[in-house]
Design goal:
globular, 5-stranded mixed sheet, alpha/beta
Amino acid sequence: KNVPIDGFGIQGHLKPYRDSFDQEVFAKFLKELEGYDLKLMVTELDVTDVDGPEDPGQRDADIAAVTKSFLDVALASPAMIGILTWGLSDRYSWLSDSPSYKWPDGQLSRVLPYDGNMVRKPMWQAMADAFDATNLSTAPPVWRRDLIDQRMKSSAANSETFVPASANCMSATLSPVISTLTMTLVPDVST
């Protein structure tokens, strides 16, 4: 009783081949939440490819388009303080192991910014484009493309498993308060 609520986390498990994403409906939902004076954060972004075309390239393009559409709306909200993907690589996605999302031919689900070999997919670029288009005048993002890519390439080259601290998430943080937490996700490998 009388416990303050400061924020609202939005799970972003999108299923574009089963349920179409509607920007207007999402924008209206965010606007309603803004009316409660809450900070907002997308806490589990992944975009399932189940029921999509067999061609991985086409699925990647479709998923990138849905991701960009979703993030354009989310990042337009002045209450949005961050975006977290639910993993970085398809290799470790819960969707690649879930029977109802597995591909019959054994392919990994293609639902995150990096594929199973830690190579950027179109979803990564869609996220980067959405973040770049955001007005970040209040605080710079701590989403460090250069460090994430450097570490991912190093891990893939050495056949290592790279799982950043704190839930294997890629983040774009628009709040200095949260940036101290998310900066630990990407180790500084430049030294």
